[in-house]
Amino acid sequence: MSALTPQSDMPTPTTDKITQAAMETIYLCKFRVSMDGEWLCLRELDDISLTPDPEPTHEDPNYLMANERMNLMNMAKLSIKGLIESALNLGRTLDSDYAPLQQFFVVMEHCLKHGLKGKKTFLGQNKSFWGPLELVEKLVPEAAEITASVKDLPGLKTPVGRGRAWLRLALMQKKLSEYMKALINRKDLLSEFYEPNALMMEEEGAIIAGLLVGLNVIDANFCMKGEDLDSQVGVIDFSMYLKDGNSTKGSEGDGQITAILDQKNYVEELNRHLSATVNNLQAKVDALEKSNTKLTEEVSVTENHLTFWPFGIGHSKEEMERVKEESSYILESNRKVTKDRTADGHALTEARKQLKEETQLRLDVEKELEVQIGMRQEMELAMKMLEKDVCEKQDALVALRQQLDDLRALKHELSFKLQSSDMGVKQKSELNSRLEEKTNQMAATIKQLEQSEKDLVKQAKTLSSAANKLIQKHH
């Protein structure tokens, strides 16, 4: 990989030179981070055109922010997964010098800084993620203890240092996921510190908060009194993730296969040792057979001498006794050689039997090794399918949460409308009752008017009859 080439203010070269330079240079200023199993993939986002015809570049701020959120989420997945696997393999309490743990805090710091609003001061703009973290103690009372501890640490002089110390104490408490979820759920409070399209304001923040639950299985212990958290430079080390995934996959399966290979090597070494022992025993047997043959020949010669000596020139009795003793000694030696040969034969038989058993054990170990390799491949395939299923379920969970939020909003709206309609019905019923009362009152008034009208008609008739009578009297 060639060295990273920074952009300079030199005059623009020709199209051929631009194309050649782009072929030889990897640009990381605008890249997309994605995961392919255990691999970290960096894909260029049209930093420079490789063809003479200019192509449109992605200058939309929303697109760039979405790309940054995706990059940070993928980096968080890799960092959390690598930290959990390495910590479980290590099998001890982690401290501040552990490299995967340092990279995890660097990634978390970048996630918390994404889309952070800057506060203007007399020295310029100041962007610190300590402000949002201080809100956690208002949402979760248990966080008040670590916030007070951070404020009491004497060596911390900057908000960045206090934020880093807060993250470490929350991880020690195994409450980091709980605190982040409580913070992300309050978008109304976070809007004071973050832009609308920041990672903490979008669904990537909720996904990262869910991934942090896995860190509850590890134990960490930090001594922050002598650690300089204010001046640390938070740079992501991509070299920890740009490596072959086979070195980190299936660590438990690798341990089993390594043990089986060690056992196989031991059996082979034992087999070679037994083969050498068998060869040595075979050589001893051959030597004993030759010695036995020579002794048998000497015994036969001695017996011949003993047979013919009494009829010969006449030897003394002492000579005869000496010859008999030598003959008995030779016979005893012959018996011992025969016994040794029988014992060596038994040892050879036992060695051959043990060699056969070790050979059978070696074949069984090789078969078991093949079975373990097949099981490991199946486990890797199952892990890939499980990761894919988890991603799909996470996407489905995010969609369901969105639908649930929509349903809650619709329910709230309907309940508001229902309350409004209930109030309208009550008002109408009250108005109807009032109208009925007025109607009844008007009906009673009409009856009274009709009665008075009848009375007036009667009075008019009476007056008219009286007037007629008076008129008749005058005539």
Automatic annotation (TrEMBL):
InterPro entries: RUFY1-3, Run_dom, Run_dom_sf, RUN_RUFY3. GO terms for cellular component: axon; cytoplasm; dendrite; neuronal cell body. Residues 95-227 form the RUN domain. It comes from Pygoscelis adeliae (Adelie penguin). This is Protein RUFY3. GO terms for biological process: regulation of axonogenesis. Residues 271-305, 397-466 form a coiled coil. Keywords: Coiled coil. Pfam families: RUN.
